[in-house]
Amino acid sequence: MADRALEGLRVVEFADETASYCGRLLADLGADVVKVEPPGGGRERHMPPFYRDQQSPDTSIAFWVHNTSKKSVVLDLETAGGRATARTLALTADVIIEDNPVGWMAERGLGFDELRREKPALVYTSVTGFGQTGPHAGYVYTDIVGQAMGGIMTLAGEASDPPVEIYGNQANVSASIQAAQGTLLAVLSADQSGRGQLVDVSAQEALSMSQETAMQTWDFQKKNRTRTGSRGLLPVDLPAMGVHEALDGHVMAYVLSPAGAGFPALIDWMRERGMAADLDDEAYAKICNELNMGWITRLMSDPAAAQEALPRVQHISDTVAAFFRTMTAVECYEEGQGRRLLIGIVSTPKTLSEDRQLRARHWFTQFEAEFLGAVVEFPGAPYRLSETPVVIQRPPRLGEHTEAILGALAKQTEVAR
Amino acid sequence: MTKLPLDGIRVADFSWFGAGPIGAQTLATFGAEVVRIESEKHIDSLRVVHPFALNPDGTFKSGYNVSGYFNNFNAGKLSITLDMNSEKGQEIGHRIVEKSDVFLTNFTPRVIEKWNLGYEKLAAINPRIIAAYAPMQGMEGPNRDFLGFGAVLTPVTGISFMSGHSHRPPIGVGTNYPDYVINPGHTVAAILAALRYRNRTGKGQCVELPQLESVVATLGTAVANYLANGTVEGRTGNRHPVYAPHGAFRCADDAESIGSTDRWVATACRDDAEWRALCRALGKAEVANDARFATAVARKANEDALETLLGEWVRAQRAETVMETLQAAGVPAGVVENAQDMLDRDEHLKARGYYVYLDHPETGRSAYDGPAMRLSETPGVLRAPAPLLGEHTMDVCERILGMSTDEVADLLAEGVLA
After folding, report:
1. Residue A344 and residue B153 in contact, taking contact as beta carbons nearer than 8 Å
2. Which of A141, A194, A394, B64 shows the smallest number of beta carbons within 10 Å?
3. Is residue A308 situated within a structural domain?
4. Are residues A198 and A236 in the same domain?
5. Which of residues 289-328 of A touch B (CB under 8 A)?
6. Does residue A174 sit at the B interface (CB-CB below 8 Å)?
7. pLDDT of A340-387, one tens digit each?
8. Is B406 among the catalytic positions?
9. A406 is in which domain, residue-wise?
10. Which CATH class name applies to B10-218+353-414?
11. A275: which strand partners?
12. How many domains does chain A have?
């Protein structure tokens, strides 16, 4: 059997939606991750979609994608007995991951300071909306609030629409990814020094980098970047720039950007398909041959020339749009890229599932869910490590490992006595 | 001074744009010595795009060193200019790898091959190297040479299709979102795991992170739902499958919010108790029991009416007031913050000292994102602002590679160090 990168690293996780993906990253890399769950399971266990619409704590796909390769122990932390067992279990860990409201773990005897007193090498990662300190530390958090206060919602969508969140609980995902890095840094440090520490991650801060240039634009120029929708930062609508309809979906084109073969190569393609229409006429051909971002910038600085040229540019845009509409999105993408044109497919869950690159690379994985009598096909890992493969194992059923883990724990405790 | 987790680790950072450099910056922040290999002949485009620092007269500064876009991803690194298209340049590149623990790149497979930086070559030079490759679609496969960057990756990964309001086409999310946390963060996590393995076994390895795979892994629900159920989830704007209300609601305009005077508050009720608390907090306790909204199922069924009503309740109030009122009642709520809020108006971020201000020789004092993981004993630190292009060429050649001053002078004259 191949070595695992995080072999021998014991993680006890007291996490629900916010930090569960952090635990998953470590578990898939080989850490032994025990998830402590309340009776009935947390919010994520009850979140749709469900496998084949079988609604149960064991069949939530939303839970699955953040909880592969873990073990599950149910403990009621609202009882003294549950808390005592949790504490014993926590002290077997090298790493604690938790995402409860600030102070919640300490109230139950499971806070960083208390556990560290017993185990100085313990790494304790807390992932919350706003971090462990500061005036908003006690603020109630859920993903959309993180996306709002993390500065990315204000940048997304059309100016005339409400700001909009990014799909996929990205505040939680970002916080979890930051937490995984922080946890591993602290583990490396503890390996060297024998000293553990607190890793404090705020979802708000976790997203700040994703403002792209907005933060620096304010810092340098005292201007706020706003949401600019489909046009992005372009001054006018331009041919083969932005989202286009295809026969069965959409593609996103950036043909005028400096990378790739450039606009004339697109016209060649259209001509081959008999779709160049009148773009070879002199009035348009000249523009088509020169069209790139530099040309547009020069044009926009000359209002008279722009007024004359822009209707023609619009006609070129319309002709290109009509061309894309004659092909499937996959055809626009694969054939366009084959011609070194910067065109991306607007992938759907279906096209991703069929994507020839992902399939050729055997990216998707499978696990057996014997309790469903099914082999489940599942999205793969973010990375491949040549010596220490990432392995994605079936997410645990609620409390699946309670007996085994608590039994082993009781035995150890007895031996210790 | 406290020993940082990556003290003594050297990183050969052959990356550019966002996803690679941000990851290497995190390594630098936690103690690694990061040598960023650049070339004026193959300039990182982020060095020459907005936002630029301003001159005192309000005009933009110019040159390679004044872009906030670049600088925010490269703090604390050393910069060497090296022409990797030349044989001698490659030889020096290999010598840097020989002296490094980690190699990182997000160049395309074509460029990797041209520059002779494939894993087999690097492992032959330095068997302990952890070599991380983060190409767009993978080092192999039928689409490995497809063109792309963050703006294309967002649609190709499915983020664009899944995000946004349902009445709009899939226009994307306003930024090259995967570049900034998902891809650099996954890359660093893999590198750190590989470092732990090397510490235990002495073995280096190859890490491959196709950016497509890294991002789709975070959209697992949509893809897994299709694989399991054949369901294609579409755009639902700010709506949530269970929670309602769940959205952004317009509040009173704020003239002090520069160029972005419309103000919004995001809020969500995850259960009936939060809904009742919201109603009471906004002085509408009687609505809590309205049968159209009393249960989560009812609120989902009457979501249009629910949103209209909530929108009316908050429209005349300051967004900050709504946030504070709802938070005091235990309801998740937050202002839709812009960069001005984040840097200047959010007292919480200020109290936590998240943004770091560094003196840069060309931009002056400017803001950087601090590390988003706060380690109590070994806090990361941005030790220096982003380097000027080639600022450390001499230092790297002499101190790290052990070249003589004459040797460096020759290479400079030959244009290898450019």
Report:
1. yes
2. A194
3. yes
4. no
5. none
6. yes
7. 999 999 999 999 999 999 999 999 999 999 999 999 999 999 999 999
8. no
9. 10-211+381-416
10. alpha beta
11. none
12. 2
